[in-house]
Design a protein that fits this description.
Elements: E1 3-4, H1 15-22, H2 35-48, E2 52-56, H3 59-68, E3 76-80, H4 84-87, H5 92-97, E4 100-104, H6 113-117, E5 131-137, H7 150-163, E6 166-171, H8 174-181, H9 185-189, E7 194-198, E8 209-213, H10 215-227, H11 236-248, H12 253-270, E9 284-288, H13 296-305, E10 308-309, E11 311-314, E12 317-321, H14 328-346
Parallel strand pairs: 1-10, 3-4, 3-5, 5-6, 6-7
Antiparallel strand pairs: 2-8, 7-8, 9-12, 11-12
Helix pairs in contact: 1-11, 2-11, 3-10, 12-14
Keywords: Lyase, Pyridoxal phosphate
GO molecular function, one term: L-allo-threonine aldolase activity
GO biological process, one term: glycine biosynthetic process
Length: 349
């Protein structure tokens, strides 16, 4: 058996999703004439209570288009130190938009509103950088798929309003947060000025994210999308996969969460310090290998030899991500295989 747990981006379109893509009505999206992508943008905007959306090929682009509508060149965006927008978008905010960033550090990426609000420096005059926006990631990828507290989000929004700051939501896995917490998408959406929503992670589409905001901001973002070379033509073929994902793959995210919890519990039973199952909120299992006498890369190689692929993201940090291509048989095989690898590693040196 071969089980790929490196990311929820590795899923393959089902036959039914491929059929939906093949039959999608299409047009030229640069001219605004693709009915499938138009309806997808409108649908996702409505889900989150926003006026408009723009389809992008990646979540990184959706994030970058959104934040540049909030933060001018030379101004400052605040974000958590391990957030995707800071760590995994290759400095795009600075390179493309002249945006500077400062960060706060939070255990497992969990938001505490005061951490961000206390370091904000809006309206700093002619000699200091002014903060104009704060970004929140929900769920927090490198924090282990943690779900942000809606109460802390509310507090952040309240404090941001008082200071004249805008808020951006990196919602790459917001559907996981929605399913895990039971909080509606509109209730998340109402606190943020801009949102990025990914369709190609837990929802299983092969490509696609949507940037959401007011009609005015999205009109500007659409121009920048074209300027960045991401104006697309008959993109309804891809948008149809997004529609299919929204129709069929939201509620089933609970299965991914259950399977992640199963794997975490199995590994915890071998060595408690590797993972605390109570910290596994959604579909990501972060492995702390500090008490294991091999590196994360070595652990990943041993797992791969047994048919289980995981990601080594640091010297002693590995990540497991469950997704819609993983069934219970894959879950059980992965959990037992990884537990065996961990047990062997503990006595190897």
């Amino acid at each position: 058996m071969r089980v790929n747990l490196r990311s929820d981006t590795v899923t393959l379109p089902s036959d039914a999703m491929r059929a939906a893509m093949a039959s999608a009505p299409v047009g030229d999206d640069v001219y605004g004439e693709d009915p499938t992508v138009n309806s997808l943008e409108e649908r996702v905007a409505e889900l989150f209570g926003k006026e408009a959306g723009v389809f992008t090929p990646t979540g990184s682009l959706a994030n970058q288009l959104a934040i540049r509508t909030l933060v001018a060149p030379g101004e400052e965006l605040l974000a958590e130190s391990n957030s995707h927008i800071v760590r995994a978008e290759l400095g795009a905010a600075a390179v493309f938009s002249g945006i500077t960033t400062r960060t706060w550090t939070a255990e497992r990426g969990l938001l505490h509103a005061q951490d961000a609000l206390s370091m904000a420096k809006p309206n700093s005059g002619a000699y200091l950088v002014s903060t104009t926006a704060i970004a929140v990631e929900n769920t927090h990828n490198f924090g282990g798929g943690t779900v942000q507290s809606i109460e802390e989000i509310r507090k952040l929004h309240e404090g941001a309003q008082e200071q004249g700051l805008s808020l951006h939501l990196d919602g790459a896995r917001i559907f996981n947060a929605h399913v895990a917490s039971g909080i509606s998408l509109k209730d998340y959406g109402k606190y943020f000025d801009t949102i990025s929503v990914c369709l190609s992670k837990g929802l299983g589409a092969p490509v696609g994210s949507i940037a959401l905001s007011t009609s005015e901001r999205i009109t500007k973002a659409r121009i920048w999308r074209k300027r960045y070379g991401a104006g697309m033509r008959q993109v309804g073929i891809l948008a149809a996969a997004g529609h299919f994902a929204l129709d069929n793959n939201i509620a089933r995210l609970a299965d991914d969460h259950r399977r992640a919890q199963f794997i975490a519990t199995k590994l915890h039973s071998v060595l408690a310090s590797v993972v605390d199952p109570q910290h596994v909120h959604t579909n990501i299992v972060s492995l702390n290998l500090i008490d294991v006498p091999i590196s994360a890369s070595e652990f990943a190689v041993l797992a791969k030899e047994e048919g289980v692929l995981i990601s080594a993201l640091g010297p002693k940090f590995a990540r497991i991500v469950t997704h819609l291509d993983i069934d219970d048989a894959s879950m059980e095989y992965s959990a037992q295989t990884l537990a065996n690898v961990l047990q062997r590693a503990l006595v190897s040196k």
